Amino acid sequence: MKDMSLGAHLLVGLAIAATVRATERSRDCPKVCTCEVRPWFTPRSAYMEAPTTDCSDLSLTAFPHNLPSDTQVVLLQSNNISQIKEPIDLLVNLTEIDLSQNNFFAIGDINLGQASRLMSLHLEENRLTELPKGCLSGLGNLQELFINHNHISRVAHGAFSGLARLLRLHLNANRLASIESQWFKDTPSLEILAIGENAIAQIQDMNFKPLVSLRSLVMAGMRLTQLGDKTLVGLDSLESISLYDNGFRSVPHAALQRVPSLKFLDLNKNPIQRIKQGDFRNMLHLKELGINNMAELVSIDGLALDNLPELTKIEATNNPKLCFIHPNAFYRVPQMETLMISSNALSALYRGTVESLPKLQEISLHSNPIRCDCVNRWINAKRTRIRFMEPQSLFCVDPPEFKGQRVREVPFREMTDTCLPLISSESFPSGLNMEQGSSVSLHCRATGQPEPEMYWITPAGDKLLPHMATGKYRVHLEGTLDIVEVAGEDSGLYTCVAHNLLGSDLRTAVITVNGSWPRRANDSFKLRVREVTSHSILVTWEAVSNSVTASVSWSAAGWVTYTVRAPTDLHLYNLTHLNPATEHELCVRLADLHGQTKTTCVNVTTNKGLDHSAKGKEASAGLATVTALGTVLGVVSLACLYFSWNMDCGCLQNDTQNEAVVALPLDESCVPLMDNRDMGGEEDVPTLELEATVIDVSAAARKSRDGKGHLSCNWPAFEC
Length: 720
Known about the structure:
Blueprint: H1 2-28, E1 34-41, E2 47-54, E3 73-75, E4 96-98, E5 120-122, E6 130-131, E7 144-146, E8 154-155, E9 168-170, E10 192-194, E11 216-218, E12 240-242, H2 253-256, E13 264-266, E14 274-275, E15 280-281, E16 288-290, E17 299-300, E18 305-306, E19 313-315, E20 324-325, E21 330-331, E22 338-340, H3 351-355, E23 362-364, E24 370-371, E25 387-388, E26 396-398, E27 419-423, E28 431-434, E29 440-442, E30 446-449, E31 453-457, E32 463-464, E33 473-475, E34 481-483, E35 492-500, E36 503-513, E37 527-532, E38 537-541, E39 547-556, E40 562-566, E41 572-575, E42 583-592, E43 597-605, H4 612-621, H5 623-646, E44 662-663, E45 703-705, E46 711-713, E47 718-719
Parallel strand pairs: 2-3, 3-4, 4-5, 5-7, 6-8, 7-9, 9-10, 10-11, 11-12, 12-13, 13-16, 14-17, 15-18, 16-19, 17-20, 18-21, 19-22, 22-23, 23-25, 24-26, 28-36, 41-44
Antiparallel strand pairs: 1-2, 27-30, 29-34, 31-32, 31-35, 33-34, 35-36, 37-38, 38-41, 39-40, 39-42, 40-47, 42-43, 45-46
C-alpha cells in the first residue's frame, strides 16, 4: 500500500514540475509566437519530443528576443527577416532552425556562431547568391542543410569545411552552371544529395567520386542530355538515382553500369525514343524502374531488359507514343511481379512477353487502344494467372465488331489465332522538316500473328531490309530507319511495310529538307514487256521517285477493264489465265507527292495455242491419259467453282523468299489469285511476298491452302 502511495505522489510531482515548466516557457515566450513541446524527428528519423518556438508567418523583420532557454526547435519561416545580429548559439540546446522564405542575401547575414548541437538548418527560398569558404565551419554537428531555391551561382572550395557529419544536402533549384568534386571533399558522410533544377548541361567524369557514402542522388530538371561513362564512378553505395525531367534521348546505360548497388532508377519525363537492346542489362540489384511520362517513347525493343535478377516492378505509364513492347523485351527477369503499362498507345501485349516473367502477378494495361484479335487472345484465357488492374477500363477499339466492349468480356473463341499486321499510327510521323546535315530516326512498329517482318522503301524506290546498312541508311530489326546527314536528294516519301503470311500494312512519311525537296528530272518511266505466252504477259517498269500509289489495269476487246493496286516498291506484274491469241491493253498508273499522275500503256497480244493437228495426234496417242486428266480437271473445276462462290477476290502467296511476280488473270468475273515465281535474269527484282495493297485490317481473313502450298484469302484488294 505504501508503494502505491509513493508512486502516486511521484506522478503528481512530475505533473506539477511539468506544469511549472510549461508555465515558465509560456511566460518567456514572445507574445506573437507559440511555445510548446512538439513531436520532432532526428535526421535519422528517430522520434523525440522537443521544446519548440513557432514564430512562422508573422511578417517579422528581426529575430525575436528572449526565447525560452530550453528551446530546441525554432520555426521562423515565411517572415521578412534579412539579418540576425545576435549569435543563435546563445540557444545552447538548439537542434533545428528554419529560416526559409525570408530575405537573406548572404550566409554572413546570419550569425550562426558555434551552434554545436545544431543538426538541421533550413535556408530555402531566400536570396543567397554564393557559399563562401568556411561559411558553415562552426556547425560541426550539422546533419541536414537545405539551401535549395536560392540564387546561388558560386560555391567556393571549402564552403562545406567542418561539415564532416553532414548527411543530407539540398542544393537544387539554384543557378549553378557546373559541379566540382572539390565541394564534396569535406562531406565524406553525405548520404543524400539533391542538386537538380540547376542549369548544368554537362557533368564531368569523377565529379561525385568523393561521395563514398552517398545513397541517393537527385539530378532532376537539369537539362542533361548525356552522362559520360565515368560520371558516376565511385558511387559504390548509391541505391537511388533520379534523372527525372532531363533531355536524355537515349538511356545512359554505360554510366549506370558503374553503379553496382543501384536499386531504384527514375528516368521519367525524358525524350527517350526507344528502350534499346541492352539498355538495362546486368543491373544485379535494380528493384524498381520508372519510365513514365515520356512524350517521345515509341517502343521497348527486344532484350531491352536483360539479366535483372532482383527487378520486381516496372512503371511505364502515360507515354502517348509507346505502341510496341517486343515479345522478348524482358529476358532473365525472374522476380518481376508488377508491370504498369497503362495510358499508352499499346494496341497489343504479346503473350510471350508475359510468359517470360514467371512471377508476374499483376498488370496495369487499361487506357490503351487495345486491338481485340489474336495477339491479345491470351488475355481471355481461363487459366491466366495474371490479375488485371482496373479491368473495367480495358476496352477494345478494334475490330469494329468488338469496339467498345471490355476486353475481358470478349469470348475467347471469337478471337482468331492469326491476324494481319497493323502499324501503329502513334509511332509514325506524317511529315518532318529536316535541316541539311542533320540525322533522323523514323520508328515503325507493327503487331500481328505471325509476328510481322519490316522493310522500308526510299523516295528513289530502293528497298531496305532489316540489318541493312549503307552510308546513308540503316534499318533496325524492330523497324526503325536511321537516316544520317540528310541532304536535299534525301527528301521525299519514305514508306514502311509490315508483312506476314496473311497480308501487309504500310505507312508513309514525307521528309523535306530546309522546307522543300527537289523535283527530279528522271520521274518518267517506261513500261516493258518481258515475256509473253499463250496465257500470260509479264511486264516491268522502272522505279519512280516519291510514288504514292501504283495501279495496273488491263482489258481486252469485249471484256471489262480490271484494276489492281500495288505497293510502290513493286515494279513487275505477271498476268495469267489469259486467253490465247488475244490483244490486251495494259496500263500502269503512278501518282506522286505533288499530285501528278503518270500513265504508260502498251498493247500486247498473247501467243497462239497448239494447232488442232498436233492436238489430234497427241489425243490419239494418249486417249486414256486425256480421259483421266479430264476427270481430274472436272473435279478441280467443280472445286474451283465452289470456292469462287465463297470468295470475292483472292491472292496467292508463295512460301519462297525469292523474287516475287504478281500473277493476275483476265478470264474471271473478279481478279483471281496472285502467283509468285523466281524471275532471275538481267535485273534484280524486288522481293515481295504479299498482297499488292494495304488491306482492311478489320476484316477477318478467310484462309485455305491449295495443293501447292499457296495461301488464299478474301482481302478486299482489287477494284474490278
